[in-house]
Amino acid sequence: MRLLFAEDEEDLNRILTRRLIEEGYSVDACLNGQDAWDCLAGTDYDGVILDVMMPGIDGFSLLRKMRGKGIKTPVLFLTARDSVEDKVKGLDLGAADYLVKPFSLPELLARVRVLTRSKAGAASSILTAADLTMDTAAHRVSRAGKNVELSAKEYALLEYLLLHKNQVLSREQIEDHIWNYDYEGGTNVVDVYISYLRKKIDEGHAVRLIRTIRGAGYRLEDSL
C-alpha cells in the first residue's frame, strides 16, 4: 500500500517513515503541506497521514483542498492539537481518523491498517482468497494451512492483490501503489515480484491463484 506522510518535525518524519517501510508500506514523505499537495495532485494513494501544523499549507486546509478536488483518499491526522474542537473540525472536514501526539507506535500501525483497508472496502484484518489467508494484524500469510514467508515488498504486493481480488490490475496500477517516487529499479519490477510470489503462493498447488491476463495485467482469483 502506498502512503503519503506529511510531518514537519524531521526526526519524527524520518523515524516513522522508516518504520512504515519496515511494515511493507511504500511511503512518500514530505515536510510541508505544499509538497504534500504536489504529491497528491499526481498520485493515487491508499492512505494519507497529515500533521495539522505544517508550513506552506496546514493539514486542515490541505484536507479541505483534497475534498474540494474530489480526492477521496482516507486521511489520518497525526497531531499535537488535542482539543475537542480540533478533533471535531478534522473529522467534519472529512478525515477518517485523528490521533493525538504522543502516541504508541502499535496503535498508529493499527490505525494505518484500518485506513488502507477502508479505501478498498475491506472490513477485517483477515484477507482471504480461496485457501490463501493473510492476517494483516499479525503480519502472517498461509496457504492451505501452511505458513508462507514473504519479504516486505512481496507482502505488500500480495496485500494489494488480495484487496482487489478478482479484479484485473495493470502493471502500472501495481507499480504506482507498491513503489514510491524514490524507486530506481528496472521497468519489469512488477513481473519480477509476481514471479517471486507465484513461487511462494502457487508452486506445489494444483490450482494457481495468480493469473496473467494477456495484454492487461494480473488477477488474483478467489476460487479453487
Task: Quickly list its features.
Arc Repressor Mutant, subunit A, 11 strands, alpha/beta, 8 helices, Rossmann fold, 41% helix, 2 domains, 4-stranded antiparallel beta sheet, 224 residues
Quick structural gist:
The chain has 224 residues and is of the alpha/beta class. It contains 8 helices and 11 strands. The chain folds into 2 domains: 2-120, Rossmann fold (3-Layer(aba) Sandwich), CATH 3.40.50; 126-220, Winged helix-like DNA-binding domain superfamily/Winged helix DNA-binding domain (Arc Repressor Mutant, subunit A, Orthogonal Bundle), CATH 1.10.10.
Q: Roughly how much helix do the residues carry, as a percent range? A: 40-55%
| Nearest-integer average pLDDT | 92
How many DSSP E strands? 11
Residue stretches low in confidence (pLDDT < 50, at least 5 long) are: none
Here the CATH topology of the largest domain equals Rossmann fold
Task: Outline the secondary-structure elements.
Elements: E1 2-6, H1 10-22, E2 26-30, H2 33-42, E3 47-50, H3 59-68, E4 75-79, H4 84-93, E5 97-100, H5 105-120, E6 126-129, E7 132-135, E8 140-143, E9 146-147, H6 152-163, H7 171-178, H8 189-201, E10 210-213, E11 217-220
Parallel strand pairs: 1-2, 1-3, 3-4, 4-5
Antiparallel strand pairs: 6-7, 7-8, 8-9, 10-11
Please explain how this structure is put together:
With 224 residues, this protein is an alpha/beta fold. It folds into two domains: 119 residues, Response regulator (Rossmann fold, 3-Layer(aba) Sandwich), CATH 3.40.50.2300; 95 residues, Arc Repressor Mutant, subunit A (Orthogonal Bundle). It has eight helices and eleven strands. A five-stranded parallel beta sheet has the order 2-1-3-4-5, with helices on both faces. It has a four-stranded antiparallel beta sheet with strand order 6-7-8-9, covered by helices on one side. The protein has a two-stranded antiparallel sheet with strand order 10-11. β7 and β8 form a beta hairpin. The longest helix has 16 residues. The model has no long low-confidence stretch (mean pLDDT 92).
